[in-house]
Amino acid sequence: MAELLGRRDECAALDRLVADVLAGGSRVLVLRGEAGVGKSALLGYLSSRIAGEAGRGGEWRVASAVGVESEMELAYSGLHQLCAPLLDHLDELPPPQRDALATVFGLSTGPAPDRFLVGLAALTLVAQAAERQPLACIIDDAQWLDGASAQLLGFVARRLLAERVALVCAARTGIGDDILAGLPALEIGGLSDRDARPLLLRHVHGPLDAAVTAQILVESHGNPLALLELPRTWQAAELAGGFGLPAGQPVAGKIEHSYVQRLRLLPAETQLLVLTAAAEPLGDPVLLRRAARALGIDMMAAAPAVDAGLFQVRIRVEFAHPLVRSAAYQAADAADRRRVHRALADATDAQADPDRRAWHRARAISGQDEEVAAELERSAGRAQGRAGLAAAAAFLTRATELTPLPEARTRRALAAAFANVQAGDFESTRTLLTIARDGPVDELQRAQIDLVRAQMAFAASRGNEATLLLLAAAQRLQPLNLQLTRQTYLDAFSAAQFAARLSEGVGTAEVARAARAAPRRPEDEPSPGDLLLDAFVALTDDYAAAVPLSWAALATLRRDPGSARENLRWLWQGCVLALELWDDESAYDLSGHHLQLARQTGALSELPLALGSRTPVLVFCGELAAAAALVEESRSVHEAASIAEAPYGALILTAWRGQATEARELIEVTIGEASARGEGVGVAICEYSHAVLCNGLGQYDEALAAARGACADPREMVAHNWGMTELIESAVRTGRTDLATETLQRLTTKAHACRTNWALGIEARSRALLSDGDTAERGFREAVDHLSRARVHGELARAHLLYGEWLQQSNRRADARGELARAHEMFTAMGMDGFAERARQQLLATGAAVRQRTANATEQLTEQEALIARLARDGLSNPEIGAQLFISARTVEWHLRKVFTKLGVSSRRQLQLALADGDRPVATT
Asked: Average of pLDDT values for 643-656?
């Protein structure tokens, strides 16, 4: 191929890619370069290279897709192209994945699946197809992929590891820089003069002035397609004298201009047929024939374009280069474009593909049309069911543009704004809100406009602005829709909790006051959201009086956690409420249900919040290995979906582990980011984590400063409770008994109000630190008794440690050894190394000999390997592990082989023993 002249290095890279996949691994590569630089030619080389393997017994399977600019608003259209040849494996997928893919591809009906469940299904489909033979996924013009397809191709690419898959894409620089960002890339530059000159001269017939040759080489920037295409449109005399050079255009523009000139030399019917093919991105020749018949064109009209090497009609309609398609569409007269879209709409089966038909109809009109707008609006619901909110947003936005009646236009603009804000397209949301605001609006619509603006602010940043806007929206909705009003007040309260110390004028007290004054819905059975709002409002006024309301809300959620399916966030808010009441049982149950439901329903966009709330609960319960697994899973979610919450769970885990360097670095970064976002509660959690770390390491002055920061604002629910615990211990150790006594009074008030074993145990332990003699000993024993009946084993171990330290200071060394040995054993078993070392030092001071912990084989495992090993030990199959961690079953198998080798086992049964608790360090006298 002439376009491959001078591409020896690039072809060699593709040869290595093929060899690597045949050797048993996955390879991902994005070819990046300007239009015409040879990306498509290199993809063609890869296809021929793969075809050549068949003759050597290495037959590949190939799936391909081409991004099309006119399809960018149709969610999953690119993914459908790629996956269509692989759908014979659809029934091999786990049912939730199979149903998700079938729904978005229009093969079945059902509720809109979460976008990343679709991505996981695509990953599994690709992996299954690659089980029997190597698979090549080739995507050209990736910059024109619809947003959903581009995002999920990135998802798939980042999760491939051990599958025999080559995923190779081509994306244009500039407009395609954000597409598949971060993946391995090969920059395709222009040819050197040494390679460009012979390529140019080989395709010029007749004399070419030397100066003109030099000018062409300079202006083409070594672009192979420019060197091949530009001379075809110039006359010999123009080439000789240089008159045909279109100066001042980018290379891509020059190439498209060349294609436009070649297209204009074709007969009028041929040009119209080529335009029809350009407007029909599926490449379906049957659909093209039907549309041509509607236009009164015989398919023989395609012959001049085929002879000119511009496109061909075979099993699929294929253009010689993506720029031919864009040139044909962009250069066409607007009336002709509308005409071919009308023909395509008529040719599209209204029963089989009503949404694409509606989309073509929308492109076929120049003004406004209520019938078409209504059809688009009806399609929006189906589009959401197939492709999610982004697709619905696109249909509703176009429906708004086509609506002639002001009232209907306002209604559709609002619906489109709600869809766009949930889909994360804030720029379109702002435009639609302007349209709605400028039209005739009633009071409910004005309130809904405010609500969309508030939701946009809360999604973008959970700081002050979101609280103000959500509160204003709730107050405006109050006389119009009580159900939506109370839900908005609950969201406003959550926003105020996030802002806390960084709020400016409006905090939880102001939200609570407004919610308390609002009328209630006339219902016998309040929803969990109603009960949660009542509890949070009461907590801002009188803690003791709020406790019964809080127990009622928690009991309702625990009795029927499935009731939160309509609003999974209720479970997160319930977990926050439980932690504020020191209710470890409810926090454990609700955070577990939240995580379970988020996984079961495929609500992967909810997963970061569920993982972030579950992690600290597991840390307090001493299940640090499980907490570490969730932190690793959070990283998987972030890598797979680019969704992330602030790493508060990871912060707390690292602090309790006593990992000083990692914790300090994470605290420094996170506290800056939380401050910038206006998340006061994030600052408090950072300060609390700092205090825990330093108390564990025995650095009490630093712990006291951090604990005081954590307790700076009592509005910061949960974090303030935790901070009080650390403040009392560090204040006692640094001689600031005045601070410790004052803080104990606040802690006692809460503990005696909620009376959970966790709260009473912490209160007794803190009281003992400020006492002497028998009073202190009774306090420590009371703390151990209460905390032994709670789940919070980390706090129980600290009670043993503090009791042992007190006994040591009281010269009761024999008694101290027992408590300190128990603390040391517990901390070591849980992986709380900072506290374990503190206990070891105290044990040594009593004269005890501490047996050093021997290295465990499991410590050789990476976090990912350890997580997969634990899941396999717990009985999950490879596909189940893959579904949870967003990787394929083959990748799970690859990791498990490494785990087996490191642990010296050969079966899952042996894995049970290898991962059981090993020898624990003990103290001897």
From this structure: 85
